[in-house]
């Protein structure tokens, strides 16, 4: 886990959210089973040298932020599909001008940046059920670039910049409710996947429409845009149910409209009687074996417990809180508070480290947050210290706590928490739970893998769901993962996905 400053950063690209009633014209769907181009895109642009330079500079930063790349046959397959759909955009007719990357991230996300760089996470890829859905998602993101939405967002931000306690207009995954006011909305971010300004609805719909246009042009079934949106909506609902939240903001969606509200628009745009290839079996074969959920190299969330087998530590969230694991930070969220866990180089004393973390919570030009005092303690044999600062939010006072641990060899880890004034004690059990783990405990942490199986005689939705490597909601997880309903009937020879160890 690398060092992470818990403040916002510069806008670098476009981020996931796809489907429906934009202004670009659609061309007739290609017929037959082969992929081909059929005409000139409506957004005729090109990849300039400036765009290439910008993309090349941002690319390694994005790879670091999203856990690096997935290599192997799955990545090669995704790259091929991505280039096929990207050339439909008119940005370039040369497949070699596009760099398509499968990211090692457990977050449902996809995005593209100028210069021909297109990204999708393994987690979102695993949620899809055919090649047309993958092409639709990537086509939507390329559509944002072709329509130059990022540049328009930046211009709008410059005109309408909001100056708040942290001088930022961005919000993070932890902010499904507004109980902590404007301050809470600006304290936490979950990495580059959320370091983007919100697209306008018209921009989202235009990118949706462009993605559908690209699907038709390439010969894919354009209805795939609606089905992948439906899967995302169902996944959001399932995660909210499992976490006990009724108004969950999904990891990738704080900057995008709810996919559930856009499925019908996507289907209308595609045409209910549309045709085209989906390449379902080819797709499932192509993604078989992907790591699903958390990669142990980045730590694993199991219920209320987070374990990092490589760095050899573990901690538990308080009762009633849920965790989201990012590649460089863990987010903890509940009704009574928000928190984030990450680490960095100690360099000096814990006091100085804590002061540095507090300083990193504000942008330049804003008043620095300063703890009233810093207290020393010890947690499970680990030297620790903490500081508390009370901050005036837009409508109330909040307490910000930095609780840091000295792991030796110049390495420190810390929590940053925010609660209503006087409520910081809700996180005391979590602060006290951090501990080192043994080699045997670390070795027991195994990755979950996506396993594509062929339905045999006697297999049912319920029997196959029992193979899911979860202790809860096996049937619900299986149905959402495969785009099935509880009354769906499986046929012998059909391929389906299960998650195993």
UniProtKB/TrEMBL annotation:
User: What range(s) does the LysM domain occupy?
Assistant: 451-498
Ordered alphabetically, the record's keywords are: Hydrolase, Metal-binding, Metalloprotease, Protease, Signal, Zinc
Cofactor(s) named in the record: Zn(2+)
Offer a single GO CC term for the protein: membrane
* Keyword Signal belongs to the record: yes
Which Pfam families does this chain map to? LysM, Peptidase_M48
Which positions make up the signal peptide? 1-29
Q: Specify the superkingdom.
A: Bacteria
User: What protein name does the entry list?
Assistant: Putative Zn-dependent protease
**Record-level Gene Ontology MF annotations:** metal ion binding; metalloendopeptidase activity
Which example biological process does GO assign this protein?
A: proteolysis involved in protein catabolic process
Q: Which InterPro entries match?
A: LysM, LysM_dom_sf, Mito/Outer_Membr_Metalloprot, Peptidase_M48
